[in-house]
Amino acid sequence: MIKSAFNEGRRLTSKPLVKEHALGGTFLLVVLVLIGSLLYSTISWMWDDQRLPLSKIVLQGELHYVSATDVQRAFAQLDHVGTFMSQDIDVLQDMAESIPWVSHASIRKQWPDTVKVFLTEFHAEAIWNGNALLNEEGRVFDGDIGKLDEERVKLYGPQDTSEEVLQVWRDISPKFESLNLTITSLVLNERRAWQIILDNGIRLELGKESLQERIERFVSLYQNLGSDTQRVSYIDLRYDTGASIGWFPEQELEQENTDD
């Protein structure tokens, strides 16, 4: 009798517990559905092309040759600039780095509608083959030569020789500076022969071999020429020893002096 009453009590007690668990589960399910619906609505709203369009550009960096207009024009080449959520940063970076003079671009988005663009420009070390520029590492890049704020040495050479030509110019320039001369052009031709044009108009033919030795020979010769250097048109150093000198005609030299 006692056992039967005990079992009946357990059955009576378990029914409210089942109902309580069912209600709790239903409530939790409703909450999860509401949260999921809210998240879905929020994400859909944020990814909507009509919402949060990127409409402002903030340009940063120490810039001399690149303007905000250049960046706007680069981004305008995209078929579509997305929203704060949808726009791929890497795509914007690639477009920014396609701008002449831009060495590196760092892009980040700022809520809710701004793109911050930090640019690093190339430094133009030299003019390459008349229509391009070289940076400090000898890398060729496009840039408006007319925008250069001062003169640059003009370097010429076959494809893939820009680093070599730039390094040779750096190595030999001090020897000419000791004579108060400046190299305005350095040429490496297809036959691997070197030629130099100096700021006083003298052309040096140096050939393919013994470049350093031939430059030393020029330094010694130039020091011995004295005032006659004004009459020199070119110096050919493509010999084992010595050099041949081309002189301006006296009449031409007098005409140049008169013009001055």
Please state the second-level CATH architecture of the largest domain: 3-Layer(aba) Sandwich
Q: Spans of 5+ residues with little confidence (pLDDT < 50)?
A: 253-260
Helicity level, as a percent range? Answer: 40-55%
| Count of separate DSSP helical elements | 6
- The CATH superfamily name of the largest domain is Cell division protein FtsQ/DivIB
How many structural units, i.e. domains?
Answer: 2
Any idea of the CATH class of the largest domain?
Alpha Beta
Please report which band the strand proportion falls in: under 5%, 5-15%, 15-25%, 25-35%, 35-45% or over 45%. Answer: 15-25%
What letter string, H or E per element, gives the SSE order? HEHHEEEEEEHEEEHEEH
Main β-sheet, in a few words? 9 strands, mixed
Q: Oligomeric form of this entry?
A: single chain
Rg calculated over all Cα atoms: 38 Å
Instruction: Tell the overall outline.
Output: rod-shaped
Average pLDDT: 84
Distance between the termini: 136 Å
CATH topology of the largest domain: Rossmann fold
Report strand order across the widest sheet. 6-5-4-7-8-9-10-11-12
- Tally of DSSP β-strands: 12
User: What class would the helix/strand composition place it in?
Assistant: alpha/beta
Pfam family, one: FtsQ_DivIB_C
Subunit structure: Part of a complex composed of FtsB, FtsL and FtsQ.
Keywords: Cell cycle, Cell division, Cell inner membrane, Cell membrane, Membrane, Transmembrane, Transmembrane helix
Function: Essential cell division protein. May link together the upstream cell division proteins, which are predominantly cytoplasmic, with the downstream cell division proteins, which are predominantly periplasmic. May control correct divisome assembly.
